[in-house]
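writing this on my phone so excuse typos. first protein, seq and then structure
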Amino acid sequence: MRTLYVLYQLVKRDIKMSFAGSLFGTFWMFLNPLLMMGVFYLIFQHIVKAKFPQEATEGASYTVYLLAGLAFWNGFSQSLIRGMNAITDNAYLLKKTAVPPYLFVLASTITGFISTFVSLTYALLLKDFPYSLKHVPLLLPALLVELFFVMGVALLLGSLCVYVRDISQIVSTLLSFVFYSLPIIYPVSYVPDPLKPFLVFNPLFYMLRNIQTALLKGYIDVSVFLTSLVLSCLSFMLGILVYKLLRRGFYDVL
């Protein structure tokens, strides 16, 4: 219980620090996802003028399809960036307190993941509200799987970042490539056949499909969900293993 209380306090601290000094404060938590959705919608609907039939976008409008993908991506990317930098960013606190380093990683990951809930709220409002609320029970397991997956990756990379700071810059750069390699701004059916094997071997594809099908079609593909669940468990266990192997030397290099 003490660990959960400390984790809760660290999440509260991260949220306050994220918006400290800003005029609108925590209101930015709701405004940022909305602005991002607006920018992508403007670019792909009115500048690029992307046109996809509703059959390709899971029976929903392109706006809702786009928002579902962005909700997934916002949660993953922000959680990963925050989580993998959490230990190095809080080095001064780690030297002064007895709080285990992994709690900073988990707290930062959870804080970054909040944008997913906000974005999905907008998507639910745009998709046949209030009938879309029946999709919420399906979204919860999909979100938990994604959260534990990114926690594992953040623990792994965060532990390595203590020793090799360049990893943070490399990962941040690679995220741009990963974003466009996933069917977020385009339907999965539009992926050319020669490139589809790359999706099959991308763990994020299964996490993304869980959210898209749950939100847009009102069901979860069992095989996709089980695959994502296994990948999430492996990621979390690998993250814990790497953290335990490397944590003893943290305080020598921080």
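second protein below, same order as before
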Amino acid sequence: MAIGYIVVLMPIVVVFFASFSDGNTFRFPPSGFSLKWYQAAFESSEYRNALSVSLLVGILATLVSLTAGTLAAYALSRSTFRGKTMIETLLLAPLALPHIVWAIGLLQIYAWLSIGGTLLGLVLAHAALTLPFAVRIMLSTFSQLDKTLQDAATTLGASPMRVVVHIVLPLIWPGVLTSALFTFLTSFNEVTVSVLIAGSRYLTYPVRLYSELRSQGIDPTTIAISAMLVAMIIVFALIGERFLNWSRRV
């Protein structure tokens, strides 16, 4: 168990401490400590633009997948109809399909729709990849929802919309927030589909990082940005587990 934790956490530790290096190349352990690479990260217009694209695409893809996933999960959890299992399997299929296969299929569709290399195409691609996470988490959330509360409100004369607003939404908001965070992080870290779909105009941060690594090797600036992102994800994970019980919903 201890060896497993070391293998998982050691790369994070290396990246974090190497980001404070005062040298001009990647080195661990660092010979000295400095914040100059963090300053360079904030001053780099290329990385700022890439982070802006990643944030924009992540937010839009999260809104799309969360809305569609919540509605789909609610219908699947509250209805019994022929083909229900098949629909649920199709919604979760992107989890099992290699991303490169998914990206190649999307390229063919986008060529037909003429949306390749556009923001719309990139958002829809990320939404398709993150939809299974939203569906899976919301299915778990709705399975823990006491249906008798909705029946009681309906019996007392509440309209369907009022039941949703005053009964359902307050009870499922932890699942909605958990789903939103998971889908956003999944979108933000996506590389394979983004490389083939984004084009040169909408380069996300992971794609920019991948391009820099291939052309110039390991840049200390990318290490500093990566360390900040890792710290952000760890904070989100700790908050999510502490207040939303992520491990019970995924």
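Residues 45-78 form the longest helix (34 residues). thats all i got for now
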